[in-house]
């Protein structure tokens, strides 16, 4: 009856409550699983199990409720409650490895780490490839590569770890593992370029070895050329025959020179594959420039064959103004008879040949010399202009002396030349050519007048001789040396002067024996020592306004170089400035943005020290060797002058000390520079103190540029003292205000406000 039905209702109600409780348990399992934002496999399984309990309890409750008679008042309510019981939605697993991280985000993070590792590896490998292009690794390159490799290795380790922790089976993991495994960061190669010059140390040794051989060859050829010159100078003035001792000395020197060249050439050929291309080309160029001389027995036969050339005079013999009597009459007649086609206005005496205003050719030589008259690399001999003159009028004239310009008297300097003038060649206006196959000697004079003239002298200018180049773009080539009291003067125009061998005055400079070269206004070029390094002593060089280039390759003694306004270059980088003879070495470049390239300076006494004044303008002084006024080497006084001036250290390992010491004649040091540049080579050092900065440019800020291999010694003491300077990290200069674009400079100052801005790329500041 009633009690049995009540029991069934109570049982059904209990089952409904259990189903509702199961539903709440499932909801709680879902809520707990979602608490950390990710779903683990265990959490998903717990939810699924809770849902199974919901389903089981709901079915039991549903069966019990449906079994109640419809007359039971509670049935409808219980059925509604059962119908409202439902399982929760089971979420997908988002944290398959149960590490509390969303798998998708973990995959994205791992992918990013792999990309970062690939990028870091690429940067390292690119830098490695670039560094290995020259097969030389400097310490700076090795340090940079080590830093990049460390970054790349750390990035790969991080990526590898991230990929390893990804859940197994997650889409994309296998691909990431393959990408990580493909990342390769080779070891940093060992340092093999200790001086940081871009050439490995073994090749450097080879270059030094070859350099020694090439220098020996050059020196041997220089000796050979000296013996050649001596043989020519000592040859009989009438027959041209060489002294037996001179011929033997030349033959010996030539044989030795050829042997030294062959030895050097063999080594260059052997090492060609190991040498940098530019170095190999330079060695080969230097060896190719070494040319054999030949002491050809001179032809002194007289040539009386009629000249077929119009507007020309060919003497057929030496023109000797000292001939007298019947001999002189016969020679003069032969010369006149030989030249029927000469200019109607021409006049011939043994003392002087004069032409009119046509384009005339005058040859002291033979008919066969006519075809090579304008070839300024061909120097025939032996027919001389002796105690005589040649004067041509207007026109584009050609004058060839197939031997010397000379006179009977011996002249050793300009003072004696004023008293005893020698032979003369005077060409008027026009674009003239004057060629002297041997030497211009003993007070002889060449005056080319206005026009674009070319003068070539096969050997030397000696003994108070003069060259006067008028206005125009003139060219002078001297195959040998300038010796004793030479004057070379050019008017306005772009002149080019090349002296192959040097200024050979082995005595102290005097007004009488000095060599004076005045190039005038224009963009002029002067190269002394173009063939080989030689003595350059008792030289004065003057230029006017224009952009001049003065290059000296030699052992410099008493030398004065003064350029006018314009952006001039004085290149002494291959020269040695030393103190064998008295007299100051003076370089003054005047107004303009000038460049001065200094060679090796040392041991200069107060009376013959180096003095450099760059003058007004933004000038640059380049150092190729160490400079230190405190080393008691009397290296001279270097002044930048007005403007923003820069000291540039050009060679690796160079050290420059900004100290100034002494006063008056004994003062030496560096003054007046606003910038120092060490960016062109590695492992350079600048030393300075507060006092040096104050003396250098009246205490104005000094800027120093460089790289990580360079050193700035602020105390000039080799200690990590900073010399009283303190770094001010808040005071920096970059951008357009920086001396070198892309670089940032940080201030170092002392208590009195003296400032030095140092390139942040320089890390070794002591």
From TrEMBL:
Superkingdom of the organism of origin: Bacteria
Disordered: annotated segments: 77-178, 295-318
Key words of the record: Coiled coil
InterPro entries cross-referenced by the UniProt entry: Epr_GA-like, Serralysin-like_metalloprot_C
Gene3D superfamilies, A to Z: 2.160.20.160
Bias kind Basic and acidic residues: ranges: 77-86, 112-121, 141-163
One Pfam family from the record: GA_3
Residue ranges of every copy of the Minor extracellular protease Epr GA-like domain listed in the record: 4-101, 103-198, 201-295
Coiled coil regions, renumbered to chain: 2-67, 207-274
Name used for this protein in its record: Minor extracellular protease Epr GA-like domain-containing protein
């Amino acid at each position: 009856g009633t009690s049995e039905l009540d029991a069934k209702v109570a049982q059904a109600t209990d089952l409904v409550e259990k189903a509702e409780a199961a539903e709440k348990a499932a909801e709680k399992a879902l809520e707990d699983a979602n608490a950390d934002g990710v779903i683990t496999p265990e959490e998903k399984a717990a939810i699924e199990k809770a849902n199974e309990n919901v389903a089981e309890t709901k079915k039991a409750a549903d069966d019990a409720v449906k079994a109640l008679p419809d007359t039971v008042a509670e049935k409808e309510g219980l059925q509604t409650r059962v119908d409202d019981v439902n399982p929760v939605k089971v979420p997908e697993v988002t944290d398959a490895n149960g590490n509390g991280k969303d798998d998708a985000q973990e995959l994205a993070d791992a992918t990013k780490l792999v990309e970062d590792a690939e990028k870091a590896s690429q940067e390292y490998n690119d830098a490695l490839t670039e560094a290995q292009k020259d097969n030389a690794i400097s310490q700076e390159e090795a340090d940079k590569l080590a830093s990049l490799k460390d970054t790349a290795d750390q990035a790969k380790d991080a990526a590898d770890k991230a990929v390893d922790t990804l859940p197994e089976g997650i889409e994309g993991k296998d691909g990431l593992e393959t990408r990580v495994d493909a990342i390769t960061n080779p070891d940093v190669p060992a340092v093999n370029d200790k001086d940081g010059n871009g050439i490995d140390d073994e090749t450097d040794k080879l270059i030094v070895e070859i350099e020694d051989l090439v220098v020996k060859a050059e020196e041997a050829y220089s000796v050979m050329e000296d013996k050649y010159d001596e043989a020519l100078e000592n040859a009989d003035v009438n027959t041209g025959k060489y002294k037996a001792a001179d011929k033997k000395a030349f033959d010996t020197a030539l044989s030795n020179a050829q042997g030294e060249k062959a030895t050097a050439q063999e080594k260059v050929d052997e090492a060609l594959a190991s040498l940098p291309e530019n170095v190999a080309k330079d060695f080969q160029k230097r060896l190719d420039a070494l040319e054999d001389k030949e002491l050809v027995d001179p032809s002194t036969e007289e040539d009386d064959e009629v000249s077929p050339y119009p507007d020309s005079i060919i003497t057929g013999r030496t023109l000797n103004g000292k001939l007298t009597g019947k001999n002189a009459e016969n020679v003069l007649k032969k010369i006149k008879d030989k030249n029927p086609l000469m200019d109607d206005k021409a006049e011939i005496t043994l003392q002087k040949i004069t032409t009119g205003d046509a384009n005339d050719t005058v040859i002291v030589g033979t008919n066969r010399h006519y075809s090579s008259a304008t070839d300024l690399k061909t120097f025939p001999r032996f027919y001389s202009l002796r105690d005589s003159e040649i004067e041509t009028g207007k026109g584009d004239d050609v004058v060839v002396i197939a031997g010397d310009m000379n006179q009977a008297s011996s002249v050793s300097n300009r003072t004696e030349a004023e008293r005893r003038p020698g032979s003369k060649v005077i060409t008027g206006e026009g674009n003239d050519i004057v060629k002297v196959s041997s030497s211009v000697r003993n007070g002889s004079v060449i005056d080319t007048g206005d026009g674009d003239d070319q003068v070539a002298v096969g050997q030397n200018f000696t003994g108070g001789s003069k060259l006067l180049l008028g206005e125009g773009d003139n060219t002078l080539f001297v195959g040998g040396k300038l010796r004793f009291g030479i004057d070379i003067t050019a008017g306005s125009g772009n002149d080019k002067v090349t002296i192959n061998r040097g200024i050979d005055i082995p005595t102290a400079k005097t007004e009488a024996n000095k060599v004076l070269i005045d190039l005038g206004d224009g963009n002029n070029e002067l190269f002394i020592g173009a063939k080989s390094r030689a003595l350059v002593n008792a030289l004065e060089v003057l230029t006017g306004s224009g952009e001049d280039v003065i290059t000296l390759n030699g052992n410099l003694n008493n030398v004065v170089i003064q350029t006018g306004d314009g952006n001039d270059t004085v290149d002494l980088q291959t020269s040695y400035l030393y103190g064998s003879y008295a007299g100051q070495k003076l370089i003054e470049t005047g107004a303009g943005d000038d460049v001065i390239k200094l060679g090796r300076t040392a041991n200069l006494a107060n009376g013959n020290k180096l003095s450099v004044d760059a003058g007004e303008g933004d000038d640059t002084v380049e150092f190729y060797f160490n400079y230190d006024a405190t080393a008691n080497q009397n290296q001279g006084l270097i002044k930048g002058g007005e403007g923003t001036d820069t000291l540039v250290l050009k060679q690796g390992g160079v050290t420059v000390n900004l100290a100034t010491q002494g006063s008056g004649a004994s003062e030496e040091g560096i003054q007046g520079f606003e910038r120092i540049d060490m960016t062109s080579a590695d492992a350079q050092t600048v030393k300075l103190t507060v006092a040096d900065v104050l003396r250098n440019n009246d205490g104005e800020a000094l800027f120093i540029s460089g790289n990580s291999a360079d050193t700035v010694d602020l105390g000039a003491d080799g200690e990590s003292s900073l010399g009283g300077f303190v770094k001010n990290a808040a005071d920096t200069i970059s951008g357009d205000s920086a001396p070198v674009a892309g670089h940032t400079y940080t201030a170092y100052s002392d208590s009195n406000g003296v400032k030095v801005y140092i390139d942040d790329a320089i890390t070794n500041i002591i």
